[in-house]
Amino acid sequence: MATTSYATGANAAQPDAATQIEIYRRMNLIMQNDEASRKIIRSGRLMMPYYSQRGQEVIPSAISVNLNDDDKICTIYRGIHDMLAKGVPLRALWAEIAGRVTGTCKGKGGPMHITHPASGAILTTGIVGSSMPIANGLAWAAKLDKSRQVTIANFGDGASNIGAFHESLNLASLWKLPVIFVCQNNRFAEHTRYENGTSVDQISKRAAGYGMPGITVDGNDPYEMYAVANEAINRARDGEGPTLIEAMTFRFFGHVFGDDDFYMTKEEKSAAMAADPVPLYRAKLIANGVATEEKLAALEADIAAQIADAIEFALASDMPPLEELTRDVYAEQGVA
Amino acid sequence: MATTSYATGANAAQPDAATQIEIYRRMNLIMQNDEASRKIIRSGRLMMPYYSQRGQEVIPSAISVNLNDDDKICTIYRGIHDMLAKGVPLRALWAEIAGRVTGTCKGKGGPMHITHPASGAILTTGIVGSSMPIANGLAWAAKLDKSRQVTIANFGDGASNIGAFHESLNLASLWKLPVIFVCQNNRFAEHTRYENGTSVDQISKRAAGYGMPGITVDGNDPYEMYAVANEAINRARDGEGPTLIEAMTFRFFGHVFGDDDFYMTKEEKSAAMAADPVPLYRAKLIANGVATEEKLAALEADIAAQIADAIEFALASDMPPLEELTRDVYAEQGVA
Amino acid sequence: MSAAENKIETKKITIIQAINEAIAEAMEADPKVIVLGEDVADREGGGVVGVTRGLSTRFGDDRVRSTPITEQAIIGAAIGAAIGGYKVVAEIMLMNFTTVAMDMIVNHAAKLRFMSGGQTGVPIVIRMMTGAGISSGGQHSDFLEAWFAHTPGLKVVMPSNPEDAKGLMLSAITDPDPVMFVECTRAYFTPYETPVKVAPIPLGKAKVTQEGTDVTIISYSEIFLRATAAAAALAKDGISVELIDLRTISPWDRATVIASVKKTGRAVIAHEAVKQFGVGAEIAATLQEELFGQLKAPVKRLGAPYTSVPFSGVLEQAFIVSVAGIVAAARATLA
Amino acid sequence: MSAAENKIETKKITIIQAINEAIAEAMEADPKVIVLGEDVADREGGGVVGVTRGLSTRFGDDRVRSTPITEQAIIGAAIGAAIGGYKVVAEIMLMNFTTVAMDMIVNHAAKLRFMSGGQTGVPIVIRMMTGAGISSGGQHSDFLEAWFAHTPGLKVVMPSNPEDAKGLMLSAITDPDPVMFVECTRAYFTPYETPVKVAPIPLGKAKVTQEGTDVTIISYSEIFLRATAAAAALAKDGISVELIDLRTISPWDRATVIASVKKTGRAVIAHEAVKQFGVGAEIAATLQEELFGQLKAPVKRLGAPYTSVPFSGVLEQAFIVSVAGIVAAARATLA
Ligand SMILES: Cc1ncc(C[n+]2csc(CCOP(=O)(O)OP(=O)(O)O)c2C)c(N)n1
Ligand SMILES: Cc1ncc(C[n+]2csc(CCOP(=O)(O)OP(=O)(O)O)c2C)c(N)n1
Ligand SMILES: [Mg+2]
Ligand SMILES: [Mg+2]
Question: Which residue among C138, C312, C319 sits closest to B319, beta carbon to beta carbon?
Answer without folding.
Answer: C312
